[in-house]
Amino acid sequence: MEKLSKKGVSEVISSVLLIAIVITSVVLVSAFVLPFLRESLQKGKSCLDIREQIFIDTESGYTCYVKAPAIPGAIANTSVMIKRGENEISGFLISFVKDGSSKTYTIKNNTPLSGVKMFNQQSTLILPQKSGAETYVFDNFAFERVELAAITADGEICQSFSAQISECFYP
User: Fold this and answer.
1) Other CB atoms within 10 Å distance of the CB of residue 103
2) What is residue 134's three-state secondary structure?
3) Which of 37, 107, 119, 164 is the most buried (most CB within 10 A)?
4) Which pTM does this prediction carry?
5) How many CB atoms lie within 10 A of CB 162?
6) Cα–Cα separations (whole angstroms), residue 79 to 4, 57, 71, 137, 164
7) What is the Cα Rg of the chain in Å?
8) How far apart are CA 85 and CA 52, in angstroms?
């Protein structure tokens, strides 16, 4: 009778192969996942930095709405003061929200925008200087709240601030 020859992989070789497969898998996964995570974390960090640096100033008295005298309940205009810190921004979005719908304005430096002017009546809009503030006046419409989102220097939009705005009080 012939002897059956049993050939197999030794335990040492199989262990080495398993370790090599695991190391190769880790290298391949890290080659794709780590750059994605780094990019996502970097974007999140820039938005987190800006979140603390740009906001709607509701304390100054310049952020408020004026009612239209001839039409009960109608709003003549709304002014919003935006304060900015030291971070670089290329602009920001201001959204007026009511009943789930919104009207959004994109504010960029040295650009005119229909329905928006500076507090000093200038039609060309400017961004606040670093550590400064600017007030923007928007034409009439009703809203429930105002939202602000900064646009980073690389074009990313970062949700920043939401505020309720009260009626202007002039003594």
Assistant:
1) 13
2) strand
3) 107
4) 0.71
5) 14
6) 92, 11, 19, 4, 12
7) 29
8) 8
pLDDT at 42: 66
Q: Would you state the structure tokens that stand for residue 122, as one six-digit string? A: 């200038």
Beta-strand runs (E) in the chain: 54-56, 64-67, 75-84, 89-98, 101-108, 111-112, 116-118, 124-125, 133-139, 145-152, 157-163
DSSP line for 49-63: HHHTTEEE--SSS-S
pLDDT given at position 73: 63
If you ran DSSP here, which 8-state letter would residue 33 be given?
H
Task: Using 50 as the pLDDT threshold, list the residues of the chain that sit under it.
Answer: none
Contact 22, 49 (CB under 8 A): no
Structure tokens at 19: 């370790």
Q: What DSSP string describes 77-105?
A: EEEEEEEE-SS-EEEEEEEEEETTEEEEE
Other beta carbons within 10 angstroms of residue 86's beta carbon come to 8
pLDDT for 124? 93
